[in-house]
Amino acid sequence: MRRLVVGFLFLSIALVLGLPYIFNGQIPVKFFSGTTIVRVYLHGADRIVKIPLEDYLVGVVAAEMPAEFPLEALKAQAVAARTYAVKRLGASGVENPLHQGADLCDDHRHGQAWLSRADLKELWGTLQYYQYYYKVKQAVDETRGQVLTYQGQLIDPAYHASCGGRTENSEDVWKFEAPYLRSVPCPYDMDPEPVQTVSYSLEQLDQALGTNLAALPVSGKQNSPAEIKTTEKTATGRPKALLIGGCPLSAVAVRDLLGLRSTNFSWKAEGGEVAFTTTGHGHGVGLCQYGAKGMALHGYNYRTILGHYYSGVEIIETVKR
Ligand SMILES: [Zn+2]
Ligand SMILES: [Zn+2]
Questions:
Q1: For a disulfide at 239, which of 8, 54, 230, 285, Cβ 3.0-4.6 Å?
Q2: What pLDDT score does 48 carry?
Q3: How far does residue 160's CA lie from ligand 2's centre (Å)?
Q4: Rounded distance, CA 223 to CA 176, Å?
Q5: Ligand closest to CA 46
Q6: Least confident among 79-83, 192-196, 222-226, 317-321
Q7: What is the pTM of this model?
Q8: Are 85 and 53 in contact (CB under 8 A)?
């Protein structure tokens, strides 16, 4: 169970700290050596540890993507994770607003998850630890120093577990419009259970959403109870804004408050309950991890995978080989 939980963590980018400091080669490029140290705040232990960047990335990739995924998918994840980390290191002089004295932390809600070797031994068991650890390390080593840039600047490499067939434009999920976080088809998404349904009583909905549905007659067929309406859709047809019992709520807020797997949801009211059916898992922006798995199994390498999910990006080498 823990493995599932940890394996399917996804990044939600809340902070855009980095100042642009990598330029297209004409202006001095800031290179990171293979021995760059990152300062990671550990929530559980309430302390900061200093770890070489490339070692830190093994713990991130292992925490953020199941190690049994194909190597090229793990390599795509490694480059995305490195880009996120290097962008935070690049904010030199700017303190981490959440954890003073640290560059990064180990909580996926604040950035990306990280697991120590001891955590990974527990997660995988001693036997599989050696096989998986070295597989993930290989993904990090084979992409050593590589980061993603758009027009010479490091990108915010959003990623998620599964999109359900098509990724989302960034501005449909967050406030910012990133030219490289565009909606793209995801033909090989291999989420084994993309569609899931969860039901709530009207009282539960009222408590979570701050609405007053229990006092209203809710009935009708799929997506059409008068008290729950979509008022705006995203470019891919997901609900973006809703009116629930007269309360305006964004789909992102509904997902957060109800703990739904994604904003790609529909609903049906029946017998005093509302059943929400979701497709995919995560925010749907950027790299789709199950889509990356599918592309890798169809023979695509990590460069093609990254170019597919991050429109118009370049992979830049920051460490001389
Ligand atoms: Zn944190
Ligand atoms: Zn997908």
A1: 230
A2: 95
A3: 9
A4: 29
A5: 1
A6: 222-226
A7: 0.86
A8: yes
